[in-house]
Each structure stands twice: as C-alpha cells, then as structure tokens.
Backbone:
C-alpha cells in the first residue's frame, strides 16, 4: 500500500515509484474518484497498475493501511507485500494462479526427466 504520508508501498504520491520523495509538481488523480491525490491524503499505490487510490475509495480499512505503512518491508522496493486496487486484484489472483500452475508443471517435468535419465 502507499500513502501520501509514507514510503515505498506507503510512499507519498510521486511520478517515480522508486522515489522516496513525492514529485510535488506532478498532479496525481485517484483511479476511483478522479480527484487529486494530495500529499496529505491517505492513499495507496497499486503495485500492478501504478495508479494512486484514496483508501476510502477502495474500502481499505485504516488498520490494514496502518499495518502496511508501518511494516518495515513495505518500505523496500523488493518487498513481498503487495497491494492491488479492486480493478487489478482479480487479474493479479489469476496471474499468481497461472504462475503456481506453471511451477507445479515444471517440477513434474523435472521429476519425470530424473526417472528417465
């Protein structure tokens, strides 16, 4: 998750997702309500579409936002914690299922090759 008051997943609105400082000159709009996401707003950056969203627009509980904001791993670009907006969430789940299935298939092929070698 990303916030107008935090870093990485909880970063301030910015143009460059790796930047720890917001680009104040950049006008960012919420992907849900099309209102400007200001530095003082509590907002999230979707890890898939890279759009900003007010947490209220995505029905994200304050406790979830605070957990991600305060999590030490959320502030690193290599974090395994990801947040997806409502639009991307279904696509992300399908993508992860496909990757898991491909990994399973690959392991089966490896085991089959070991038996025939």
Residues:
């Amino acid at each position: 998750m990303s916030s107008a008051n935090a870093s990485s997943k909880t970063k301030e609105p910015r143009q460059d997702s790796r930047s720890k400082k917001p680009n104040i000159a950049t006008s960012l709009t919420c992907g849900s309500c099309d209102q400007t996401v200001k530095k003082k707003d509590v907002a999230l950056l979707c890890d898939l579409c890279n759009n900003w969203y007010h947490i209220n627009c995505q029905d994200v509980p304050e406790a979830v936002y605070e957990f991600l904001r305060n999590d030490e791993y959320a502030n690193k670009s290599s974090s395994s914690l990801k947040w997806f907006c409502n639009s991307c969430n279904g696509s992300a789940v399908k993508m992860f299922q496909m990757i898991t299935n491909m990994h399973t298939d690959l392991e089966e092929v490896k085991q089959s090759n070991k038996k025939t070698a």
Observations:
- Confidence is low (pLDDT under 50) at residues 1-27.
- Residues 4 and 41 are 5 Å apart (CA to CA).
